[in-house]
Write a structure and sequence with these properties.
Elements: H1 2-10, E1 22-26, E2 31-35, E3 39-41, E4 51-55, E5 60-67, H2 73-88, E6 98-104, E7 107-118, E8 121-132, E9 135-144, H3 148-160, H4 170-174, E10 178-183, E11 188-193, E12 198-202, E13 211-215, E14 220-229, H5 233-245, E15 252-261, E16 264-274, E17 280-291, E18 294-302, H6 306-318, E19 321-323, H7 345-353, E20 355-360, E21 366-369, E22 375-378, E23 383-386, E24 394-395, E25 407-411, E26 414-418, E27 423-428, E28 431-438, E29 441-445, E30 449-455, E31 470-475, E32 481-487, E33 490-496, E34 502-508, H8 510-513, E35 523-527, E36 533-535, E37 541-548, E38 552-557, E39 564-568, E40 574-579, E41 584-588, E42 592-597, E43 611-617, H9 618-624, H10 633-647, H11 660-678, H12 686-694, H13 696-699, H14 704-720, E44 724-725, E45 743-745, E46 750-752, H15 754-763, H16 772-780, E47 785-787, H17 791-811, H18 815-823, H19 829-840, H20 845-853, H21 862-872, H22 878-894, H23 899-912, H24 917-931, H25 936-948
Parallel strand pairs: 37-41, 44-47, 46-47
Antiparallel strand pairs: 1-2, 3-4, 4-5, 5-9, 6-7, 7-8, 8-9, 10-11, 11-19, 12-13, 13-14, 14-18, 15-16, 16-17, 17-18, 20-43, 21-22, 22-23, 23-24, 25-26, 26-27, 27-28, 29-30, 30-31, 31-32, 33-34, 34-35, 35-36, 37-38, 38-39, 39-40, 41-42, 42-43, 45-46
Helix pairs in contact: 10-11, 10-14, 12-14, 14-15, 14-16, 20-21, 21-22, 22-23, 23-24, 24-25
């Protein structure tokens, strides 16, 4: 800038060359200005801009072309102020510039004028910024201060002469609003876009935008995201904020309002934050409803002043149209999901006896029941309210108003809560206020009071870290406080009885809370009037406390008892209400227990983060609750010791239970012992066995005989699923340190050692087995499962030669030999998949299809059906398409989760030439991508979608590679 200012000051001594008046083309897009005869092109500042002019009247003019989105007057003023500020650095005494804005014949025009002294010379400046539709020109002109009026008159003639590029030019065509279509899964968005302002980009990332608009200077963008199911609009808003926070860690929601887009009522969020390079960024996220339960998102983003740039979003939304696509029956839609088979029978029995009363769409860490029967849920950073029978909880605290939540109390329309900052906050009338008092925890104490927990200040001594403990403080409705108890150690949880007279709290030494050997906890009953307390026996673990009509609820595991929900009577007596780790207490009334869980019997096994609140009558609970998961480490150890003693067996002997009869006899003894000690038999149902193995409390601290008993239980479950027992010198259920691997497989059989599988589960290592009772048979893929002590040695001795023969057949061309081999094991679909995979690249497809046809029936296995239809779908002629479409639709009805069939069907639609064939194909490809969004198969689907939209010419192969 110093060089430029020097030239500005010295310009008055420059001479001018006489020239005739003419039109000058400026910029690269074809705009024109007209200058008088005394102007000429020259170079005043080397490398500054392309268009520079001087006049014999001692005027100077620099013209810069800008491709940037400008519309609001304040936006023009902000752009000019940057230039004025740079010049002011040379003359700090310069008076403020005068700025005026006008709009004539569609051209927006802003001018700033000022005088200053540079190098001792008084100069007059006019800075003009004018243009339209994303193309603007910055005109920097100056003269001596004495020529102010002459320069002003000259610059008016110059700016009035500006002609934007002609309509026939490339820019002229791009300035005309062009309809753009954004295809969503369930609808279509259309809007008008000026490509002189925005560059359009269609995208196909799995979780990113499907369409984007970006200004040419990257200061403004608009991204369109696929429509998604939105059961809870607040949860959707929170999810958007969390995504934005990945690149803008301090982002927060600053406002939300309802707007109308395409005739629909839409929620619009404004979010602001800094990116990782410390640039301020603003977002406006508009959620457009595409049907009753789905919303698409339009995310506007700018790094400039939002109030200056929002006009572009408003103009875009004003032209928005939303339309539902033609209803096309491209493929059969799967019916209701089948019940989740991964839920143990005892849990299903409990849920069947219970009634669902509320649902939170996010996982809750704590749920409490309010006096009116509604439920208050606390998630990691969200507090929600759900009424009786509600399937759509209401978020009480919006995302920008909360931090990490620990406790909350809701009464009289006010929400009291504690966060990570250790303050008691109150949220009322949509405003958050600090009470001014410290509190790490808060629970209700009767109808009007609160029980607070806060840090106790302790004297400090250099070189020591004092553990201050906590204060338990009763806070009345009028704000008055009374300290009830000073605790030596930190309070981890607390609750108060309904009358508000007595509390239970858990306080543990810091070293015990950090112990890796287990979180032993000691509860205490505290009288809130006198401050006296009764210390209860220590528990192995306590994960939560709850309210009861009399006494309290404690969630955890007492010594010698299973994990679960316990009622603690006022005198300290314990009663197990519900065993297991999958259910969390809410409240106990005189007649019912309320609990919540993520277990959903109506789901199809997919991962869910909901919390479902149930109630169950105490009479029914008494019958099913204690038996949901009654087994725990100490009980299993007792059963094992008694059973091995009765059988007179040494559990450490490698040959223990080596024979099948020995195993069956011992299993009968173990089940009898279990009935005597636990009141029921050890589980053999695969899902129940996996649940038992996955419960840390059930096997923590098990000694060797207890681990062998767990191995026996697993073996019994696998045998019940038709596994074969291989007798040998060492037992399949023996647990021998160093036995590797736990399982081994080849194309013909899957062999495993139950003892090694249990050892792997209990080790809880990174590569440990998980859910072996169900996974082993799922992995078998039709192969026989055998139980033995050394899987590797067994496979080599029994199947080594057969494996080598298969390799020879695969390397050669003996299709007949392969057919005989496959027919000998018709249930072994794993073998056929292996053979088909290897032959597809080396043999004629028709020949391989004949192999698969040997297994065709009314219930053709998936692997064979997929191969046959895949071969038939390779470049089919139109005459065969109709029949092939029906065959593929039937296949989808049987196997709705197999993406390959949707890809094949999409290709056949394209080849068929039927009406709306591209749309039919597009629907099929998108469904395949939804089912399997990653891997080589997904890449081919994206290529096919791009080709349908005219973005690529690469054909899509009919086969769909598994991920």
């Amino acid at each position: 800038m110093r060089t430029l200012c020097g030239i500005l000051a010295g310009f008055m001594i420059l001479g001018s060359i006489q020239a005739t008046g003419t039109d000058y083309r400026i910029g690269k897009n074809g705009a024109v200005i007209s200058l008088g005869a005394d102007w000429q092109r020259t170079v005043l500042v080397s490398g500054f801009c392309r268009d520079q002019f001087s006049s014999k009247k001692d005027f100077a003019l620099l013209i810069s072309e800008l491709e940037t989105p400008l519309k609001a007057p304040a936006d023009f003023e902000a752009s000019l102020s940057e230039v004025v500020s740079a010049i002011k650095k040379q003359d700090p005494t310069m008076q403020a510039a005068t700025t005026e804005f006008s709009s004539t014949n569609g051209i927006d025009h802003s001018v700033s004028t000022f005088t200053c002294r540079v190098n001792g010379i008084s100069l007059y400046y006019e800075m003009h910024l004018l243009g339209r539709d994303g193309l603007f020109f910055m005109l920097r002109s100056w003269s001596s201060a004495r020529s102010k009026k002459l320069l002003s008159a000259e610059m008016k003639r110059v700016t009035d002469s500006l002609k934007m590029p002609e309509p026939g030019t490339e820019w002229g065509k791009s300035a005309i609003p062009t309809p753009v279509t954004i295809r969503l899964d369930d609808s279509t968005l259309k809007c008008n876009v000026q490509k002189s302002i925005f560059i359009t980009r269609e995208e196909l990332p799995q979780n990113g935008p499907i369409f984007s608009l970006m200004s040419k200077d990257d200061t403004v963008g608009c991204h369109f995201f696929q429509s998604m199911e939105t059961r809870n609009i607040d949860a959707r808003a929170k999810a958007i904020l969390e995504v934005i926070k990945t690149d803008h860690p301090d982002a927060k929601e600053v406002s939300r309002e309802n707007v109308t887009v395409a005739g629909k009522k839409c929620l619009q969020l404004t979010i602001e934050g800094r990116n990782r390079m410390s640039f301020n960024t603003s977002f406006i996220c508009t959620l457009v409803p595409t049907d009753e339960s789905r919303h698409a998102e339009i995310r506007f983003i700018t790094t400039e002043e939002l109030k200056h740039k929002k006009t572009f979003l408003d103009a875009l939304l004003k032209t928005m149209e939303l339309s539902a696509p033609k209803k096309l029956d491209a493929f059969p839609v799967a019916g209701p999901t089948k019940p989740d088979k991964s839920i143990p029978p005892a849990q299903l029995k409990l849920l069947k006896a219970s009634t669902l009363v509320a649902t939170f769409e996010e996982h809750q860490s704590h749920v409490s029941r309010l006096p009116d029967g509604s439920f208050l849920g606390i998630a990691y950073d969200q507090i929600s309210l759900a009424g009786q029978g509600s399937t759509n909880a209401t978020t009480l605290l919006a995302p920008e108003e909360r931090s990490y939540m620990r406790d909350a109390v809701y009464r009289d329309g006010a929400l009291w809560y504690t966060g990570a900052k250790g303050k008691l906050m109150c949220f009322k009338n949509k405003k958050v206020e600090s009470t001014g008092c410290d509190a790490s925890r808060v629970v209700p104490a009767g109808a009007d009071s609160l029980l607070l927990c806060r840090a106790r200040k302790a004297p400090e001594l250099p070189g020591f870290s004092p553990v201050a403990g906590n204060l338990l403080v009763l806070r009345e409705k009028d704000g008055k406080e009374r300290t009830v108890k000073e605790t030596l150690f930190q309070v981890s949880s607390m609750t108060v009885d309904p009358a508000g007279r007595r509390a239970v709290y858990v306080s543990e030494p810091e070293w015990r809370m950090r112990s890796t050997a287990g979180n032993e906890a000691t509860p205490s009953i505290l009288d809130l009037t006198t401050g006296s307390e009764q210390l209860l026996p220590a528990w192995k673990s306590i994960s939560g406390l709850g309210s009861a009509n009399e006494g309290w609820l404690i969630q955890g595991q007492p010594p010698g008892k299973p994990s679960g929900i316990y009622h603690v009577a006022p005198d300290g007596q314990l009663q197990l209400l519900l065993s297991g780790i999958h259910f969390t207490s809410v409240a106990l009334t005189k007649d019912e227990l309320f609990y919540f869980t993520a277990v959903d019997p109506d789901a199809s096994g997919e991962s869910r983060s909901t919390s479902r609140v149930y109630r169950i009558p105490l009479a029914a609970l008494k019958q099913v609750g204690p038996n949901v998961q009654p087994f725990h480490g100490e009980l299993i150890q007792k059963i094992a010791a008694a059973a091995f003693a009765e059988a007179k067996l040494d559990p450490r002997a490698p040959d223990i239970l080596a024979g099948r009869k020995q195993f069956d006899d011992f299993l009968a003894i173990a089940q009898k012992t279990s009935r005597n000690l636990a009141g029921l038999e050890l589980p053999v149902d695969p899902v129940a066995v996996d649940d038992l193995l996955g419960d840390y409390g059930s096997h923590h601290g098990l000694r060797h005989e207890g681990q062998v008993l767990m191995s026996v239980v697993l073996a019994a479950s696998l045998l019940g699923q038709k596994a074969d027992w291989i007798e040998g010198p060492q037992s399949p259920v023996a647990i021998i340190p160093g036995t590797e691997p736990a399982s081994q497989n080849n194309p013909f059989v899957l062999a495993c050692s139950p003892g090694a599988l249990v050892a792997s589960v209990l080790s809880e290592g990174e590569d440990s087995w998980y859910n072996p009772a169900t996974q082993v048979h799922e992995m078998s893929d039709g192969r026989p499962v055998v139980l033995c002590n050394d899987p590797s040695a067994y496979l080599e001795s029994q199947f080594g030669e057969k494996d080598r023969k298969l390799r020879e057949l695969m390397q050669g061309t003996n299709i007949t030999g392969l057919a005989e081999l496959l027919k000998a094991q018709p249930q072994n679909v794993h073998l056929r998949q292996l053979v088909y995979d290897h032959l597809i690249a080396r043999q004629p497809l028709g020949l391989i299809e004949k192999l698969a046809a040997n297994f065709a029936s009314t219930e053709t296995p998936l692997v064979d059906l997929k191969l046959m239809l895949g071969v038939q779908s390779e470049k089919p002629d139109k005459a065969a398409c109709e029949k092939l479409i029906q065959s593929l639709r039937s296949a989808i009805t049987r196997f709705p989760a197999e993406p390959a069939f949707y890809v094949m069907l999409g290709g056949v639609y394209e080849a068929s030439g039927v009406s709306d064939a591209p749309e039919y194909a597009r629907l099929c490809y998108k469904e395949a991508l939804r089912i399997s969004p990653y891997g080589p198969g997904a890449t081919k689907v994206k290529t096919a979608l791009a080709r349908l939209d005219g973005k690529a010419d690469e054909p899509l192969d009919a086969d769909f590679e598994e991920d």
